[in-house]
Design goal:
Blueprint (H helix, E strand, L loop, with lengths): L1 E4 L7 H8 L3 H13 L4 E4 L8 H13 L6 E4 L3 H11 L4 E5 L3 H13 L3 E5 L10 H18 L6 E4 L5 H19 L7 E5 L10 H14 L4 E4 L4 H13 L15
Parallel strand pairs: 1-2, 1-8, 2-3, 3-4, 4-5, 5-6, 6-7, 7-8
Helix pairs in contact: 3-4, 5-6, 6-7, 8-9
The protein binds (6S)-5,6,7,8-tetrahydrofolate (THG).
Length: about 260
């Protein structure tokens, strides 16, 4: 599992405050702690309240880079914000994200090639997230067709079926698990899949339990990456255990102690 740490996001009040006051230590600590806990990359999102997303993205990337060399997943809806981040984020960067609108995809794929980045493409369009598995699968096909047309390597592509909160969209969730396996049949090599894990438990009481239960089920269904909280030790332990049971990890003793 490719773990993308979710904690550097202006959605969190603490991060929004750190961005406002240019508190580099708080951001560097969040980066260091997530990397130490096993994150393979870090999501970087200026948050919904940013008055100047380009400036804030550049500051966040520069600040993280001043302490740590880890791939960054630049999370914004505006291509210009992502591009300014890509100019300084370095190798292994991930564009997060494009929707499945062919014109936006072509632009995002061209940008990914230019900066040797990979790209997360969402199975949604300007009208929003489709309710059903079939429509999402159709959008995944559009994503793969556009990649084929533009010569964009499927190996540099992540498809995100867009997890919705369980309390508004419970019937969709078994659809998502089925969709993960459908996606494997769409192309050879198969596109890799990614989800924003914490979306699923927004508005719920037992957030961590829901997150880790879904993650285990999704890993068994073939999920390759998740934007998630690597500091949630029970989540990371459940993940390692699932990978061990699926024979994806060789050393059983490498399971982290949960420490509580
Ligand atoms: N797909 C892709 N990128 C994404 C998402 C996705 N990026 C953003 C998001 N979804 C993934 N990251 C988060 C980060 C935090 C939360 C959910 C998803 C979260 N935050 C608390 C909340 O909203 O309740 C904030 C609580 C607080 O303020 O402390 O749940 O799906 N490609």
């Amino acid at each position: 599992m490719f773990v993308i740490g979710e904690l550097i996001n202006g959605m969190y009040a603490k991060v929004a405050a750190a961005i406002r006051s240019k508190d580099a230590d708080t951001i560097r600590a969040l980066a260091r702690d997530q990397a130490a806990a096993g994150a393979n990359a870090l999501d970087v999102n200026v948050g919904p309240a940013s008055a100047d997303p380009v400036r804030d993205m550049v500051w966040l990337v520069t600040t993280i880079r001043s302490g740590l060399n880890i791939p960054l997943c630049l999370d914004n809806t505006k291509p210009a914000v992502i591009e300014e981040g890509l100019k300084i984020s370095g190798p292994g960067s991930i564009i997060n994200s494009s929707n499945a609108d062919p014109e936006r995809l072509r632009m995002a794929m061209a940008m990914a090639k230019r900066y040797k980045a990979s790209l997360i493409a969402l199975t949604m369009d300007a009208k929003g997230v489709p309710q059903d598995r079939e429509r999402r699968l159709e959008m995944a096909s559009v994503i793969l067709e556009t990649a084929a047309e533009t010569g964009f390597s499927v190996q540099d592509l992540w498809i995100d079926p867009v997890l919705m909160p369980i309390h508004v969209a419970q019937p969709q969730l078994c659809g998502i698990l089925g969709l993960l396996s459908d996606l494997k049949g769409l192309a050879a090599p198969a596109p890799r899949t990614v989800v924003g894990l914490s979306n699923i438990s927004q508005g719920a009481q037992e957030r961590r339990l829901i997150n880790r239960t879904f993650l285990v089920m999704a890993v068994a269904g073939g999920l390759e990456a998740a934007i998630m909280d690597p500091l949630d030790t029970e989540l990371m332990a459940a993940l390692t255990t699932a990978e061990m049971i699926l024979n994806k990890k060789i050393y059983c003793d490498s399971i982290r102690k949960t420490g509580r």
